[in-house]
Amino acid sequence: FFFFCEVFPRTRRRNTIPARGDAALHTARMRRPPVVTCVTPLLVLLSLVRAAASLGPSAPHHSLQTMRLRGGAEVGKGDKRWIVQDREDGQNVGSWHWEERNMLPWAKEQLPRLALGARGEMSDFEGYSGHFEVTNITTLTGDCVIHLRKGRLWPLCDLNVALAIKGTCHKDGKDTAVAGSITFPEVTMDDRDELEVKATASSRGEASEVFGRWLRKEGYKTVEKVVQEFLDALHAKAGQEKVPEDAAEKMRAAFAAAEKMAQVNKMVTPDVATPTDEYEDKGDPTGRIELQEDFFCSASDVYDCLTLPSRINAYSRCSDTMVELRVGGRFNMFAGKTTGGFEELTHGGHIKSKWRMADWRPGQFSNLRIDIHDRAAGEGCSLELVQDGIPNQCVESVTHHWKELVLNQIKRTFGYGNLSGDSLLR
Q: Distance (Å, rounded) from C-alpha 115 to C-alpha 132?
């Protein structure tokens, strides 16, 4: 029908040459009848409808469970190439992906065990002596978790803790009952050594006022040590936690397979110089850099940017920064690019550490010293950095790391000053 209505008239049109004056007659003969003009679209529409109907409910049903994906295995057939077979309950396979274990119930058991009954002694403070004991934990809210990522465990908490205390003050042989509370608005692992504390006395009278002043000055320290012990216990708990045995077995098998593949690749590829070989004949590390930078903030702000994991993660755009903020503690920053350990720490002003980059010869560390000084009020602070023992060929890359990836990034991220050096042109 299509040939009769469309092709055949066009063929006749090409083969027929009308005589002069017969153009109108020829046009009338070659014009398609109105019926043909209407029927052709209807037939096309009818064909489309029939094609759609053939794909409807009457057609065989091909579910995803029986379809073979291009280049892969058949879903739901237990093929070993599919990790789905190891995830029957949808859990974290191999403990490789991000997972949180809620430790708040454990915290609500552990903190009362450590805190209740803790005793503080007041001796000759403004003529008063006395003591107090923790009688109750009135508030324990927030988050307390152990993170699991790539088979590694580490703790994280952000708790609001309030403790009720009762005791006695005596002066000139007269005893007075006192009461109060000690609150820690933000208990975190990062602030273990500098917890924010609010202490108040709820009773009235001269003895109570003296008791409140003593609490705020030094009396809170007994309870602060208890909270620090709780944080240490949480850290130890994370160290005791085990990755599930089946997950650990899968990880060991994966590592063994990767090692086997690495041996195969080593057999078919030429040897590549390792970092150790690269530095073998470079001589003693005698490189040294000295940097000075100004910031529009306090010295403690800059110190925090260099030592607190949350701030380092912010400007380094990493999520796995590890800092043990104590003398002898270790650090791992910039996704393992820089590592080392602290030798001296003075909050808000001084850092001395052993420091290295990942591509240096194993066991090779430089000596890093950072001093931060507040200038006059409202003028910010100055940072002085001295680092020696750098491999000669790495002096330029270390300088770039400090200027561009640390100091200028701190200014970009937190708005602590104007950029310096090449960053002004970017």
A: 12
Query: Quick one: which H or E segment has residue 120?
Result: strand 119-125
Question: What is the rounded distance in angstroms from the CA atom of residue 292 to the CA atom of residue 301?
Answer: 16
pLDDT band of 147, cuts 50, 70, 90: confident
Sign of CA dihedral 410, 413, 416, 422: positive
Q: Which of 24-33, 347-356, 361-370, 399-408 has the lowest mean pLDDT?
A: 24-33
> Which H or E run includes 57?
none
* Cα–Cα distance, 292 to 406 (Å, whole number): 13
- Band (pLDDT 50/70/90 cuts) for residue 251 is low
One-letter amino acid of 178: V
CB-neighbour burial class of residue 398 (10 A; exposed 0-12, middle 13-18, buried 19+): buried
**Three-state SS string across 168-237, please?**
EEEECCEEEEEEEEEEEEEEECCCCCCCCCEEEECCCCHHHHHHHHHHHHHHCHHHHHHHHHHHHHHHHH
Q: Which residues make Cβ contacts (< 8 Å) with residue 324, sequence separation at least 6?
A: 330, 331, 342
What does the DSSP assignment read for 320-340? --EE--STT-EEEETTTTEEE
Residue given tokens 């607190």 in the structure block: 308
Helix then strand count (H, E) for the chain reads: 13, 13
Residue 74 DSSP code: B
pTM flag (> 0.85): no
The number of beta carbons lying within 10 Å of the beta carbon of residue 45 is 10
Task: Give the number of residues written for the chain.
Answer: 426
Question: Could you give the CA distance from residue 96 to residue 75 in angstroms, rounded to a whole number?
Answer: 23
Per-residue model confidence as pLDDT tens digits over 162-179: 999 999 998 888 888 999
Give residue-wise pLDDT tens across range 56-79: 554 444 443 433 444 444 445 444
Residue 18 · residue 26 · CB < 8 Å: yes
Label residues 109-136 b or e (16+ Cβ within 10 Å = b). Answer: ebbeebbeebebebeebeebebbbebbe
β-bridge mates for residue 385, sequence order: 291, 370
Q: Are 351 and 345 in contact (CB under 8 A)?
A: yes
